[in-house]
Description:
The chain has 35 helices and 27 strands. With 997 residues, it is of the alpha+beta class.
Amino acid sequence: MDDRLTDQSTLSATVTNEVVEPEEVRAQEALLGDTDPSLTSAEDVAKALNVDSAQGLSEEEAKRRLAKFGPNELASAPPVPKWKKFLAQFQDPLVYLLIAATIISVIAWGIEKANARPGAEGGEALPFDALVIILILIVNAVLGYMQEAKAEAAVEALAQMTAPQTSVLRGGKVLRINTADVVPGDIIVLAEGDSVSADGRLVNAASLRIAEASLTGESVPVGKKPDTLTEAKALGDRANMIFNGTSVTQGTGRAIVTGTGMNTQVGKIADMLSATEDEKTPLQKEMDYVSKILGIAVCIIAVVVLVALAVLEGFNDVHDVIDSLLLAVSLAVAAVPEGLAAILTVVLALGVQRMAAHNAIVKKLHSVETLGSASVICSDKTGTLTRNEMTVERVVTPSGEVQITGTGYAPEGRMVMAGGVDPESDQAKTIADEVIATLVAGTLPNDGELRQENGKWEIVGDPTEVSLVVAARKVKADHKVSRYTRVGEIPFTSERKRMSIIAKDDTDSGKLTVFAKGAPDVLLSYCSRIRVGGQVRKLTEGDRQSILATVERLSSEAYRTLGQACRPLETSSLADVPGVSVNAAGQVSDIAEQSEAIETDLIWNGMVGIIDPPRTEVRDSVAEAHRAGIRTVMITGDHPLTAARIASDLGIIAKDGKALTGDQLDQLPDEAVLDKATAEVSVYARVAPEHKLKIVESLQRQGNIVAMTGDGVNDAPAVKSADIGVAMGITGTEVTKQSAKMILADDNFSTIVAAVREGRVIFDNIRKFLRYLLSSNVGEVFTVFLGVVLAGFLGIRQPESVGVAVPLLATQLLWINLLTDAAPALAMGVDPQTDDVMGRKPRKMTDRVIDASMWGDIIYIGVIMAIVTLIGMDMHLSGGLFTDRSVDAIGHEAQMTEARTMGFTILVFAQLFNALASRSHLQSVFVGLFSNKWLWGAIGLSVALQLVVVYVPFLNGPFGTVALSPMAWVECISLAAIVLIASELRKIVLRAMAKRQ
């Protein structure tokens, strides 16, 4: 082995997501030295990289190189230090408001110390209010940091689940590995739809075209050939090289990796690339807006109250100013829902983790917002609405028809004659010969592979192609297939709807034959002859009509049809084929560019009927989507009758429903007519990728939120254009996965519907904790505001009192927020489904998260919360409306301490009751009362901590509390429960109104 590949003593062996070290890049550069691989033959490049291009690297060698050269990743911006992330928790307008409140509190404490009233003790020894605010700010920052870290971990886990993959040849087998694990010397296997994961030198290519616009700016895909260049050329002209970050639009090929990570062309310009900041989502923007509105509202309320106090009572001395400043502090503290942003992020992160566990991998957290709003789901048929277990059941030849028994991919079955033909007759033998010829013609132009691993049959490639391989094995046609060696290929594309290969017969002097398969109506247009009973004759118009009628019949029975044809070229040299162009050296350069000369005068062999049964669970999912106001649209390349039959079976359309074809879409005169058609038609057949994009854009023009599934490279534009692009995790190409917002790990339509349901649940949970947090904070603001305005009526301020009396201390309000804003709100974020989320129409993206109805809830509960809190305080103050006369025996200061403890505790319990009530806008709290164990755990924790503050002596001073009697606790809980009762009464009224409507 080359020393350059084995010496690891001076190099990092780290195989992580860290930035590749410079010495690792230098080590890669040393592999080829000054050699330009584009000017070197593929064989010499393979020798230089010490790899057998027919076998690839061994797993052990690949691991060794990965350790030496580092992961195949571009250098990213260095991670943000933990201390910066912690400090970032303080970068919030509402936190700035609290910091200002802290400064005011310290100033007020200093002034009070310096200007103590005669006979007073000179105020508190320490600024307890300010210290508690600072402490709670730090605790909130720690909680926010931990929640953010958890959210980042969730996003990283999602990134790992959606990590791009690459097909490589290792140990003689084609494997799918993470792109990050590709190493220099790997043999990359390229196919249509693949993203090119590294720079490499082509070994072979068939009709290979690669889109290099991202690297060179070339808007048209570039044709690639393995021929060695004669002179150095610009990047865009290196036809024998492939480059990281580009994508395969057509054809197949294999290439030796010459550079990975930062040692690729993209890596060399990576320093010119700057990381873009994630744009805030609509939900985050609305939360910012709500926070600003709260801050502004509090400032306005504080100014109004202070002006009113100044006008009505005047500021007699510095103590009045201090009290007024402390009032401003209390209002600021009451209004701020401290952990709002962090809780929102964590709830979204936990939600997408749950979705990932059910096979729906959402790549971005904010996509959850869009999911719940989906109004149309456009889905492929094969594999998504159906099982993707393609099985050839019928073979129809010019002489008759047979059924092939057996299902799935195990090559176990036999040929059964249809139409009452005697299996021992000459006619049966003729039909059998034609069936074998048909299956040979279908198996050769085929990139599918069937192999047995640990006693289980597994497929590689397209299931439709593999079904032909399986059928050929069942009837022993594979023996004839083995006679041929492929020498040229004209690949399948969704535009061509056919695939052809040229193969030489190793048993007949290497003579060449064209074998083709494709959509019967398309392939038939290239046929001029037909084989009947071993004889080839001219294809008549009657033959064409008979074949097309058979296609219609099979399609109406839900079969997917594929035609097979061939053409013996009667020569062993492609250059001798009439119409084929050769270069100056007499060689055929690229046969794929000469399909007109090859795919002509074909002989029709027959057709197969392939069945892919619908998934049993999809019908229920379609019905569920319909109940949720979501329309299901099927878009397929299959025959219209096949599409209509499957759609009818699944409940997408009525029994007599029709499908619209791609040709019919092309004939529509303008967008208005197209929009009318897409508003009414739910099944589209024989469509090309550009039709999918048309359909999506038309539906979006009508105001729909569209989810669109896709797998092939040509689906990528439609998937990217859709509001929710959905890629197939099993059959999807890397290009489509990168364009999508969500990936289905099981390729199942039902998973999309389940994801929509989960998206709605997550959004409901966000609304729940917003309703809870904001109504609780509004309750605190109203308590402080009304407590100051009505202080004389409630006994908070006595007639002989001087200055402003604050109903609750800033430290008490902060403690309430710490108890009730974090744990209960997080628990509500993972609340099980309470309402029938699929029993209502999709939410419009223009709808506000906090709508008028929710603001009604927030203000109603906030006012009730303030009233019961102030009543509880009033009961323990002399001179109030509901005073317990026993309190007259103690002084006003002692009364205020007890009353504040009452109000403090009532507000805590009122918010905990509110947590239960906020789980639904309409449904009673008693429905599923104990279904959320996390919420009950959070409530229990909050109650325990409140008891600590009330009964632990050294906390009584800072929090202004005193131990409460058993009777006082009865009063607290009874008054707090009024919030729950008031909420239930409002829900009864709202439910009655909803029924009437």
